[in-house]
Amino acid sequence: MADLSTCAPLTRQSVIEAHELIKSKIHLTPVLASTYLNQLASTPREISTGSDSNRGPAKPVFRLWFKCENLQRIGAFKARGAFHAVEKLKKDPTFIEQGGLSKGVVCFSAGNHAQAVALAARESNLPAYIVMPETSSPTKIKSVEGYGAALTLCGRFQREAVAARIIEKTGARLIPPYDHPDVILGQGSVGLEMQSQIPKLGAIVVPSSGGGLLSGTALSCEGTGIHVYGAEPEFEGADDGRRGFLSGQRITHVASNSIADGLIGKLGEYPWGIIYERKLVSMMYAMSEEEILAAMKLIFERLKLVVEPAAAVPLAVVLYNEEFREMVESTAGEEGWDVGIILSGGNVGAERISELFA
Amino acid sequence: MADLSTCAPLTRQSVIEAHELIKSKIHLTPVLASTYLNQLASTPREISTGSDSNRGPAKPVFRLWFKCENLQRIGAFKARGAFHAVEKLKKDPTFIEQGGLSKGVVCFSAGNHAQAVALAARESNLPAYIVMPETSSPTKIKSVEGYGAALTLCGRFQREAVAARIIEKTGARLIPPYDHPDVILGQGSVGLEMQSQIPKLGAIVVPSSGGGLLSGTALSCEGTGIHVYGAEPEFEGADDGRRGFLSGQRITHVASNSIADGLIGKLGEYPWGIIYERKLVSMMYAMSEEEILAAMKLIFERLKLVVEPAAAVPLAVVLYNEEFREMVESTAGEEGWDVGIILSGGNVGAERISELFA
Q: pLDDT (tens digit, 9 = 90+) per residue, A291-336?
């Protein structure tokens, strides 16, 4: 990882510069819309309200815009942060002096970050050492090997230790999955693209785990008037971001088996600073497994897009979270809101799809 | 349907005019590519060749371009033909004189054509009578109702009789699913778009059932030097197009239960004239159920797109049909070919996806 002292400040301008640096290496992914989903989201939910309730279900009006990061290189937004981290490293004098170009980079990840670092390293002819848990999906393992990375499989809780040993032995630099300014600034480029692709964008709903994508997107919106919201699974405490946001204290331990397996990590320190301390995220919402699955089905059936469960959480918030829907009704009124939804990734195998929809 | 006497000649110019007429009503669907699928398609297959074989597997070189008609309105290319048929009707003096604008249109279909006609009629404020077999998927039935069409459910083999009764009673005009010049010219617009979207397009592989899409695409390529190939399932004789193509005699009865349920109809007369008699299609290929399913899985896992099984047949040809691959090797040599693949539709429910991938 680039020395922290060499990192750009965490500002919208730095996101713009990060985007300049990587835009020739990533896809400008399309934005899709669906008349059906707009109607569905703009229809009041059939919910039973308490007998002493003064009001029925919320009546928000939505125009939804789906940013297809499942069509990004390696099938997820993670390519953005990995390419940016590698490009910044290549400009870091210390890295060069220490022979970094031949020593390479290392990362540990069970998923999309592993593929992203392997790809970004290959395109810069840097050696890449990837540490993955043995339980990773065979598809992802094969994909990392396909990019020519040196792969080390390890036990589920040994990833950091194994990576540390590789670093000691090879001198390679660590590229962490989310808790680093260069990674956050790279992920934020998705928000900039949405601002140029979507007319009158009023808000963006973003899946949140470590918070790299959420905090990067929030930085990209600073000063624009666009509201940014985080979306998490609530199962077995995976809503650490929301709980921390409401209590004012970052939560540092999470162990959930949510179907949204891309979102079970804990919010990182840098993201927390942007999301909570700087108040660049307006609110965090958490959704049930059933709601996430229902949203995922709609994305398959109506948008014709393959997404992993994590990518369906923002649509679940829009369709099923009454607190969010009431907020949109009172904020945007009858005119309604243009809301961007980040479909963060599509890396889910056919067998897993079959299990989820059975 | 517009009187045949009022139809434009079946030429590339007529496809261009059809495209002009409908392009504000349809999506210009994106074209996607995949480095992985290019590599896979350009890798010789591991096949056992006979001991007296002089050669191993073919070594074709592909650059594949996927035309995303699954992202078309109603989720399939059928919107093109339906919009064109309706627009032509609205310009037909006889139709107007006979009160057609208030009498409306009728069609029979279990699938995408029903949704396409319902949508096209609604957008022109024409009444639409849709006849669907009772066995149609609930999703498709709901979708047709959602477009405000008058729906009649009937037994599997009663569709034409029921439609005839509706025509007699209401005076509505029939819009057939494929065997009419206006429908064929509308479908052909997809080929024109591909010619403008794909650099150095050498060939297009097209799913074929009734042959509206295949013959329309072939018309759009006439005189351009672009080769057009048809792709069918072979299960239980669904390869009627190929068998007719090889024997010189159109086959008029098909009854197959291929998983590619969009491709089990028989080739129509107008399509046959274009495909076989005018030789605008170079060859037809037929694929097994296993090969179609394998290609469908790759489209889900690698392109992150939801497609119905019918839409996967062209990729199956490219990856697994040795006759096709040998032809590409000998035609395009080491330089290789830019081959367009039409992903014809994405209307498949989550439950069916689950069954197919189980």
A: 999 999 999 999 999 999 999 999 999 999 999 999 999 999 999 9
Q: Measured between beta carbons, which residues in chain B are less than 8 angstroms from residue A28?
A: none
- Mutation to test the B interface, candidates A68, A140, A304, most B Cβ within 10 Å: A304
Residue A49 has pLDDT above 70, yes or no: no
Residue of A nearest to B308 (CA): A304
The answer on A266 and A222 residing in a single domain is: yes
Give B40's contacts (C-beta < 8 A, 6+ positions apart). B298, B319
Of B174, B197, B232, the residue at which a domain comes to its end is: B174
- Say if B15 falls within a structural domain: no
For chain B, how many structural domains are there in total? Answer: 2
What is the token pair recorded at B184? Answer: 């064929």
Mark yes or no for CB contact B353/A356 under 8 Å: no
Residue in A30, A349, A357 nearest the CB of B353: A357
Rounded to a whole number of angstroms, the CA Rg of chain A reads 20
Decide if B2 is inside a domain. Answer: no
C-beta atoms of B301 and A350 within 8 A = yes
B163 & B208 share domain: no
Q: Which two tokens stand for residue B88?
A: 């032509």
| Of residues A71, A139, A301, nearest to B304 (C-beta) | A71
- Whether residues B62 and B199 fall in one domain: yes
Same domain, B70 and B81: no
Distance from CA of A317 to the nearest CA of B (A): 21
- Chains A, B: CB pairs < 8 Å: 60
CATH number at residue B84: 3.40.50.1100
Measure in Å the smallest separation between the Cα of A222 and chain B Cα atoms.
31
Query: Do B353 and A349 make contact, defined as CB atoms within 8 angstroms?
Result: no
User: Based on the domain organization, do B134 and B241 belong to the same domain?
Assistant: no
CB B344 within 8 A of CB B113: no
Q: Which two tokens stand for residue A147?
A: 């990019």
Helix (H, G, I), strand (E, B) or coil at A128: strand
Query: Which of A73, A77, A301 to probe the B interface (max B CBs under 10 A)?
Result: A301
What ipTM score was computed for the predicted complex, to two decimals?
A: 0.93
Same-domain check for residues A166 and A188 = no
Find all residues with CB under 8 Å of A337, minimum gap 6, and list them: A60, A61, A62, A63, A202, A203, A328, A331
Q: Record the tokens describing residue A225, joined without a space.
A: 């008037």
- Cβ A304–B306 below 8 Å, yes or no? yes
B304–A350 C-beta distance less than 8 A: no
Domain boundary among B151, B174, B197: B174
pLDDT in tens, A184-235: 999 999 999 999 999 999 999 999 999 999 999 999 999 999 999 999 999 9
Shortest distance between the Cα of B346 and any Cα of chain A, in A, equals 6
Is A166 found in the same domain as A217?
no
**pLDDT tens by residue, B171-229:** 999 999 999 999 999 999 999 999 999 999 999 999 999 999 999 999 999 999 999 99
Cβ–Cβ under 8 Å, residues B283 and B230: yes
Residues B189 and B326 in one domain: yes
Place of tokens 């009578």: B129
pLDDT tens digits, B266-312: 999 999 999 999 999 999 999 999 999 999 999 999 999 999 999 99
Q: DSSP letters of B46-61?
A: --PPPTT-S--S----
Answer whether residue A63 is part of any domain: yes
Partner-chain contact B354 A358, CB within 8 Å? yes
Q: Quick check: is A52 in a domain?
A: no
Nearest residue on chain B to A304, alpha-carbon basis: B306
Domain extent for A124: 76-178
